[in-house]
Amino acid sequence: PGEAPGSDDGVVPGQESSPGVVASCRTRALLPTRLVRLADSELKTHLRDVLGTTAVAPGALAFQVQGEHVHPTKERFFTAADFASLRASLQRAARAFVTAMPASSPCRSAGGEARCAEDTLRPLVAKLYRRAPTTEEWSALSKTHDALAVEHGAAAAFEGALLAAMLSPQTLYRSETGEAATTRSVRLTNGEALDLAALAFTGRPPSDDERANVTRLSSGELPGALAARVPAWASSSAFRERVTDFMAHWLGLDHLAETEKQDPAFDGAMKGAMTSEFRAFVADRLLADGARFADLFTATESRSFAGLDKIYGPAAVAGGRVTFEAGKRRGLIGLS
Q1: pLDDT for 124
Q2: Which of 63, 121, 242, 274 gives a 20 to 30 Å CA spacing to 49?
Q3: Which pairs with CB-CB distance under 8 Å and at least 24 residues apart come from 52-58?
């Protein structure tokens, strides 16, 4: 915010009699705001977190933008060639995301456009923007979605709106307020810190109550307030799902369904059993009450599912537990 037109001191005309307003306007006028482009690695990681690695396979985001996001101002912008490469890559990602959705999804079915916009597109936009879209932002994007739906159908409308959100400055840049330090570090506002923490744990923006409680705190009170929210965030189903998905990506299990081997026993049933075993193991050894992180790598037994007897032997009975062979298997790395 800058000074109001015709004002010499940052005072909004008609409010000169309010000292609080005067002080507030003067303070805001002294704080510069910069747009900082996300680095390639930051943007790719962010998009995979939002869209999921099932839809966005490793290597799918092949764009490479020249220049560093922390260099002088000109380096923060895109050349025409870079932007064309980025747009083509993100369009493929948007199409892959739509294709991976069930055929019955409102976003792929005629007549489901309104439900798709509110239930699917809007939450995705909030994740892409790292905050809830403003009324004006959502109005513009939803109008684009609705217009595309009339002309091209539900799937194309969702793909186009998702691509528009991914290419928007709200996704590609982050704003920094205040004088830049020599280390290029800038302290986040309370709201920005809360947004990042909530999105990291739950994948969703914070609630209005959380935001109201944090906004009024001093900078010294903020760390304690965020720490107090961690148990509630960490106990949410959204957090458990994010942790499990992270571990699956780390082990390469997010593409297990597409993996092929020469062994005929490695069929769809076995892949499903391996996935079920992995998810149960993470739930038992990492997410359960009283679980210890070390057990994730040192445990000597796991739950068994139908089909795993081909790996563990006849002792692996569906619904039971299987003990790893001593010296050969242990922990998460030793699973089927």
Answers
A1: 92
A2: 274
A3: 52/97, 52/245, 53/245, 53/249, 53/254, 53/255, 54/100, 54/254, 54/255, 55/93, 55/96, 55/97, 55/99, 55/100, 56/93, 56/96, 56/97, 57/96, 57/255, 58/255
